Amino acid sequence: MKLRHCKYVASTGGCSLLNHPEMNDLYCMWNCGFYSNQTQAFLSTLILLSHGIFPDKIDYSMGFKRFKSDPERDIFPDFYRINPDQEVTPKNIILPDENRKQFEIYDFEYYNQVVKRFFNPSGVVTDRWQMLTEKYDIDPEKTVSVLYRGTDKGTEVRLASPEDYLDVVKQILDQTPANRVLVQTDQTQVLDYFKSELGNMVVSFSETPSTSGNNSMIDTMEKDKRDMTDWMQWFDAALRCVAECAYVVNHTGNCGLWMNLYRGNVNNVFQFNEAGQLT
Predict the structure, then answer these.
(1) For residue 121, what is the enclosing H or E element?
(2) Which of 121, 155, 176 finishes a domain?
(3) pLDDT tens track for 12-41
(4) Phi, psi dihedral angles at 267 (to 5 degrees)
(5) 163 within a domain of the structure (yes/no)
(6) CA geometry: angle at 156 spanning 74 and 269, to 5°?
(7) pLDDT tens across 168-216, in order?
(8) Are residues 189 and 72 both part of a single domain?
(9) How many CB atoms lie within 10 A of CB 174?
(10) Distance separating alpha carbons of residues 126 and 199, to the nearest angstrom
(11) What is the pTM assigned to this prediction?
(12) In 3D, which of 146, 234, 159 has the Cα closest to residue 193?
């Protein structure tokens, strides 16, 4: 059994539970972008489940180094809660590729069980999710959300242009009751473009800033000496707002994958693929 940049630790305790307590833990050891790390934990969880193993704990103390001031701290509880009462029926499935649009293989009946058991939002994320919804008066049923990932993402996939995203948004606005557009992007130029084209119809979260440069937001936030855990808690709450909207124009990548996982389906998700095409 080979996991994805994670390790599984199991122990029955042996002769002394005091010195050798029982363990059934999954440790994520990846240190890239937040949702890249998250994907490794998710895929490794799927692999464990396919072998009938249900981890009691997911631990981020050995990974996620760029998202915490103490490099040894486990920040999983800052973002997620495990619900051991959520039933999961293990099965073998094709593991999704985070950098490919693969709607045809997604198994949300199964994914939803896994997410609801292992990746429920923490109390802080839940509170911020609700706060953003109320502060910005988001009516999910009448909102089109745009998740545009730019900056360094172009090194992994071919990016569609902001104009392509806007074309899709305009078609949705013309054909549905939607009357607001929530733009979640790491590029200030993209946000400004949408505002110039759609005016007051556009809403964005000041709690999740963007950058006008080519560096990733991680690099930008580190340079500004921001609290990385706090920033990502805001971003995760914002991503859940995006996922909740009736219509989403999405990109292909780790963040886009987790938006779909939080959403629990790809109904009314218009996603540009790894070649920058809307198929």
Answers:
(1) strand 120-121
(2) 121
(3) 655 544 455 678 999 999 999 999 999 999
(4) -65, 130
(5) yes
(6) 80
(7) 999 999 999 999 999 999 899 999 999 999 999 999 999 998 887 777 8
(8) no
(9) 8
(10) 30
(11) 0.93
(12) 146
